[in-house]
Write a structure and sequence with these properties.
The complex is a heterodimer of chains A (324) and B (180).
Chain A: E1 5-6, H1 15-23, E2 33-40, E3 45-50, E4 55-61, E5 68-72, E6 75-80, E7 85-90, E8 95-100, E9 105-111, E10 116-121, E11 126-131, E12 136-142, E13 147-152, E14 158-163, E15 168-173, E16 179-184, E17 189-194, E18 200-204, E19 209-214, E20 219-225, E21 230-236, E22 239-244, E23 249-254, E24 260-265, E25 270-275, E26 281-286, E27 291-296, E28 301-307, E29 315-317, E30 319-322
Parallel strand pairs in A: 5-29
Antiparallel strand pairs in A: 2-3, 2-30, 3-4, 5-6, 6-7, 7-8, 9-10, 10-11, 11-12, 13-14, 14-15, 15-16, 17-18, 18-19, 19-20, 21-22, 22-23, 23-24, 25-26, 26-27, 27-28
Chain B: H1 3-16, E1 29-37, H2 41-48, E2 60-66, E3 74-79, E4 86-95, E5 100-107, E6 115-126, E7 132-142, H3 155-177
Antiparallel strand pairs in B: 1-7, 2-3, 3-4, 4-5, 5-6, 6-7
Classes of the chains: A mainly beta (324), B alpha+beta (180).
Chain lengths: 324, 180
């Protein structure tokens, strides 16, 4: 029996966590470059990664099993399902505000134009509307059952919610916060994202495909097969990138033709995915491997892997461009 | 909570879970257990690498299934005795060259194993210095899909149960093949 050693708890004993708890606030951020804020759900922390240097700048303790993440000017927001709260941080990871969300908070999107943050309530078929300056709850929006991923359209007009158990997306008008309509998609949609041209790409965990949605017309333009259990979607260099949790790969789709361009092997259980501002690099959080993989969006090859805390999820937009 | 209350809560869960089998709690859990064996990888893989025979695990009374070791093959594990509880599983990756396979649970009662949305990998690798290393890794949510789980269906209960299954299986392999 002694030769059988469970490893799952070792991250809890990392001595550097304590050092970081005392010293992370003073971690120097680079003058400029892309920074990734990765929620480590099992480890209860956020890894702040310098993507150009390929290093972890700090690991900020954040008890409460953080999942959803949304970067914003000057910092980021994180959703903590276990402590049922939304918290706001500055760029170095210092907490600057929080609001209690009593339910099952998970996904998040930020509307910078109107100073609002939206958080999905997995258990109660609704979204919370939060004033991001005051960090106060200003309302709720009704969705289908089990809303998960949220996204704001590039033109700032629409908010989309993947209603997992309802097999649909809900589309809200961001100006009026009215429900514009719902669109049936595949089985158990979880993650989603808007392409730069405004089309909505929705990963359907249960049907192993991606629904491409015309949001203004509210209908499905195409359904594209991807790998096993698609999770998150990102865009770069005229391509969509989709993490496949059970295949340990990223599917690549050409945005012009919607043709598949291949699958890239990454770490185990890839989940959150986002692209750098210049579109050169796509970053994937590998939940089981405790790392992120960096993909060259042009050559479609993995160029680096950076260690994170335990159980990186990074569910949302997690890469920020910092400094000038 | 008194015993009556506990039983009532458990009954409520048992009734509710089948309808919500695809719903799950907020945080996926992971368990990773390894064992070092004296036997070479090929010898170990010959025993553990057949998806249709899990007889190497002491808790498994019988394995029946379809599809061999091809993708989407299924198996039904009967635990303990001929009339024991069952776990239905499905193969979603199989690589004999790399000596690894991945499978999902498609149906299990939370009273048998307090998890939902369970997937796992079993891998045999060469050990530096001779022998082999067997690694069993699982990803799953707790048995209770909603907020505020009862203690027997919370995250800790799920981790404890899966860890016990893996340790029992790998200990049996250590007994069978010896420690290096």
């Amino acid at each position: 029996m002694r030769r059988v050693c469970p490893h799952w708890s070792t991250a809890l004993a990392r001595p550097d966590i304590l050092a970081l708890a005392l010293g992370w606030a003073f971690a120097a951020l680079p003058a400029a470059g892309d920074i990734a804020y990765v929620t480590n759900q099992n480890g209860g922390s956020v890894s702040i990664l310098d993507l150009a240097a390929g290093t972890e700048l700090a690991q900020v303790p954040l008890p409460g099993q953080p999942a959803g993440i949304a970067v914003a000017a000057g910092g980021f927001f994180a959703v903590l399902p276990d402590t049922k709260s939304l918290r706001r941080f500055d760029a170095a990871g210092n907490e600057t505000g929080q609001v209690a969300l009593d339910g099952g908070p998970i996904g998040i999107a930020h509307d910078p134009l109107r100073g609002r943050v939206f958080v999905s309530d997995w258990y109660n078929a609704r979204l919370w509307v939060v004033d991001s300056a005051a960090m106060s709850l200003t309302g709720t929006l009704e969705t289908g059952t089990a809303p998960a991923g949220l996204a704001v359209s590039p033109d700032g007009r629409w908010l989309a919610s993947a209603d997992k158990e309802a097999g649909q997306v809900s589309i809200f008008d961001l100006e009026s916060l009215a429900l514009a309509g719902t669109v049936p998609v595949g089985i158990r949609p979880f993650g989603l994202g808007f392409a730069p041209d405004g089309r909505l790409f929705v990963g359907n965990v249960g049907s192993n495909d991606v629904s491409v949605v015309d949001v203004a017309e509210r209908h499905v333009l195409a359904t594209l097969p991807v790998g096993d259990q698609p999770y998150g979607v990102a865009f770069a260099r005229g391509r969509a990138f989709v993490t496949n949790q059970h295949a340990d790969t990223v599917s690549v789709i050409d945005l012009g033709t919607l043709a598949p361009l291949g699958e890239i092997a990454v770490g185990e259980y890839p989940e959150g995915i986002d692209a750098t501002a210049d579109g050169a690099t796509v970053v994937v959080a590998n939940w089981f491997s405790n790392s992120v993989s960096l993909i060259d969006a042009e050559t479609l090859t993995v160029t680096a892997e950076i260690a994170t805390g335990d159980g990186p999820r990074a569910f949302g937009r997690f890469i920020a461009e910092r400094g000038d | 909570m008194n015993l009556q209350g506990s039983l009532a809560a458990l009954t409520a869960v048992a009734v509710m879970v089948p309808a919500l089998a695809l719903a799950h709690g907020p945080t996926r859990q992971k368990v990773d257990v390894t064992a070092e064996l004296a036997a070479e990888p090929a010898e170990v893989w010959a025993v553990v690498g057949d998806f249709q025979d899990m007889g190497w695990h002491p808790a498994v009374h019988a394995t029946t299934g379809e599809g061999g070791n091809t993708l989407d093959a299924t198996r039904l594990l009967t635990l303990g005795a001929a009339d024991g509880p069952t776990i239905a599983e499905e193969l979603y990756k199989y690589d004999a060259g790399k000596m690894t396979y991945s499978y999902r649970i498609t149906e299990v009662a939370v009273e048998v194993l307090p998890v939902t949305n369970y997937s796992a990998h079993l891998t045999v690798k060469p050990r530096a210095g001779g022998g082999s290393v067997v690694e069993w890794r699982g990803a799953f949510y707790r048995g209770y899909p909603n907020n505020d789980p009862p203690p027997e269906l919370n995250d800790e209960a799920a981790i404890k149960a899966v860890t016990a299954v893996y340790e029992a299986g790998l200990s049996a392999l250590v007994d069978r093949f010896g420690a290096p």
